[in-house]
């Protein structure tokens, strides 16, 4: 079956499913629910309703516009450096509603997918106390530079705990995630988060946001059926990220959708300064799209000069159509 983009938008996800005879954008569906995926009842429903752009994925109905603020808005920059900071991270295995009528059997850091946004200044000493409250071995591995003895690839058994003393360096954006085998299973279940490491004097004042791309394999077939920024499909389509027109915006951007070889980020109607991995203070280029492999990240900066809505999404269309499309609203 060949459908034009206009026909896809007109039909929406449910129409395409019906027309394709049980396939959603080329991937077979396995019914409206999958019982007891990985020990937790999963209730996936890829044929979601309520979105207005045609991707057919809506956020849970009970989420309000500020529901993801703890993951979207990073802690503020604190000048200094070479301080000792204590960080508490723990794992739990629990169902998480990742879209309307869609429950995912998640493995989480501190109860959320992604895990909490951490922030330090380069040179800070982090004492990361990790507890495994789950039923399987888990661990905690930070990207960046640190003593290999604190690399975190060793699994911590259920009920176990340990402390990782690491120095925050280099400055930039560094993901953290579970590195217990099979690593892809642990990451794809939600065990990942972000560490922002600021340069000594910080960066220029800006409206700062964190956007982490998630993919959710609802039926265990190795392919994600729902995608979302900061763990919820369709959230920023329903609730645009509001910024003052003309003022500097900084986005800490990471791709943690590990079921796909790459994902891109495209900003409509404007371009951005791109700082790959955030480890330089001068931009690498001015562009409107950046492609990131799994665990790759970037910092982007831009201004939206005209009041209005500016779309963002991956250029992997199936990701946008399944929940990873959103808006910045310049007000």
In brief, what are we looking at here?
With 331 residues, the chain is mainly beta. It has five helices and 23 strands.
Q: Could you characterize what this model shows?
A:
Strands 14-13-16-21-18-19 form a six-stranded mixed sheet, with no helix packed on it. Strands 15-23-22-17-20 form a five-stranded mixed sheet. It has helices at 5-20, 69-72, 183-188, 235-238, 317-321; strands spanning 23-24, 27-28, 34-37, 40-42, 84-99, 102-109, 117-121, 125-132, 141-142, 161-167, 172-177, 192-198, 207-216, 226-229, 241-243, 248-255, 263-267, 272-276, 285-287, 289-292, 297-303, 308-313, 326-330. The radius of gyration is 20 Å and the shape is globular. A hairpin with a 2-residue loop joins strand 5 and strand 6. The chain is mainly beta. It contains five helices and 23 strands.
Rg over alpha carbons: 20 Å
Strand element count: 23
Strand order of the largest sheet: 14-13-16-21-18-19
User: Major beta sheet, specifics?
Assistant: 6 strands, mixed
Ends apart, CA distance between termini = 42 Å
Structural class: mainly beta
The number of helical elements comes to: 5
Order of helices and strands: HEEEEHEEEEEEEHEEEHEEEEEEEEHE
Calculate the mean pLDDT score and round it: 84
Helix content: 10-25%
């Amino acid at each position: 079956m060949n459908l034009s983009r206009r026909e896809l938008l007109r039909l929406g996800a449910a129409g395409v499913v019906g027309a394709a005879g049980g396939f959603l954008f080329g991937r077979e569906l396995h019914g409206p629910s999958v019982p007891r995926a990985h020990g937790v009842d999963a209730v996936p429903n890829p044929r979601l309703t309520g979105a207005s752009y045609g991707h057919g994925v809506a956020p849970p109905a009970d989420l309000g516009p500020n529901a993801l603020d703890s993951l979207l808005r990073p802690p503020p920059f604190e000048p200094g450096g070479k301080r000792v900071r204590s960080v508490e991270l723990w794992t739990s295995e629990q169902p998480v509603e990742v879209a309307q009528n869609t429950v995912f059997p998640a493995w989480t850091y501190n109860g959320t997918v992604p895990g909490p946004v951490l922030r330090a200044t380069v040179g800070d000493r982090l004492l990361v106390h990790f507890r495994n409250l789950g039923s399987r071995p888990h661990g905690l591995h930070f990207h960046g530079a640190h003593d290999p003895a604190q690399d975190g690839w060793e699994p911590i058994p259920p009920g176990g705990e340990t402390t990782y003393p690491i120095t925050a360096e280099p400055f930039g954006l560094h993901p953290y995630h579970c590195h217990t085998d099979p690593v892809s299973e642990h990451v794809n279940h939600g065990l990942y988060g972000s560490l922002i490491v600021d340069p000594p004097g910080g960066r220029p004042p800006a409206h700062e946001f964190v956007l982490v791309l998630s993919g959710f394999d609802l039926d265990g077939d190795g392919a994600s059926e729902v995608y979302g920024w900061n763990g919820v499909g369709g959230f920023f389509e329903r609730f645009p990220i509001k910024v003052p027109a003309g003022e500097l915006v900084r986005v800490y951007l990471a791709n943690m959708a590990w079921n796909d070889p790459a994902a891109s980020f495209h900003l409509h109607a404007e371009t951005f300064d791109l700082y790959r991995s955030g480890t330089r203070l001068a931009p690498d280029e001015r562009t409107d799209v950046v492609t990131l492999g799994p665990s790759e990240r970037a910092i982007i900066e831009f201004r939206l000069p005209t009041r209005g809505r500016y779309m963002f999404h991956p250029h992997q269309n199936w990701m946008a159509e399944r929940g990873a499309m959103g808006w910045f609203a310049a007000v």
